[in-house]
Design a protein that fits this description.
alpha/beta, seven-stranded parallel β-sheet, four-stranded mixed β-sheet
Amino acid sequence: MRIGVIGFGKTGKAVAATILRNKAHVLEWVVRRSTRLDHRSVPEFLGEESDEPALIYSSQRATIGQILDAQPVDMIVDFSSESGIEFYGDEAVKRKITIISGISHYGEETQDLLGRYAEKTAVFWSPNITLGVNYLLLAAQFLRKILPSIDMVILEEHFREKPGVSGTAKVMAAALDIDEAQIKTVRAGGIIGRHEIICGFPFQTVRLTHDSITREAFGNGAIFVAEHMAGKPEGLYTFEQLLLPYFSKDEAS
């Protein structure tokens, strides 16, 4: 599978490195805003041993059409920013390229745009693309279904510089019918990311916790999604749709 990555910040670099290490797929390129490193080799820059043709492109010097003409891909994985889709979205839809977005937050207008794109190509979006967080959320939803009256509180911890409340925590709150006031936030040191859902049953407590140890967890999640999105028809997909078959006693297809 040929993959292009949009965004080359801390998470984008980790995602690119994870794809390079996976021999079942090919990282064709990454795109970043800055012109620094333009046309440098991704493996060389990251210190990864790879023969893949991965190049760094600047969105200031090349259009997505020019990049795709030179190095076509099957899927675009986006770890840039909310506005990143404006750079590649129309062209991806035109070429029927699957879009995989790990952007933590989209406003209503951008979500509507994703919906329109999904009418013409396969689009996946998850505010947190790690496999563990999404498994945790599904497990909590099952607990809520078993006993709707249980108390639930969300605790999210991240690095000191992270602004606002975690987008993942907000998505969890909405999915579990928890008031956002019940999200407790901690900002300290270099914590990459922790989400905990505390479930207060009568006479017992269940704690569901996920820790992101390194940002490569986002790369593993992106590869999981890419493999499960292969061959999907147009439509807007969520992690829940990809994971639910695994909650059956029968082997997931």
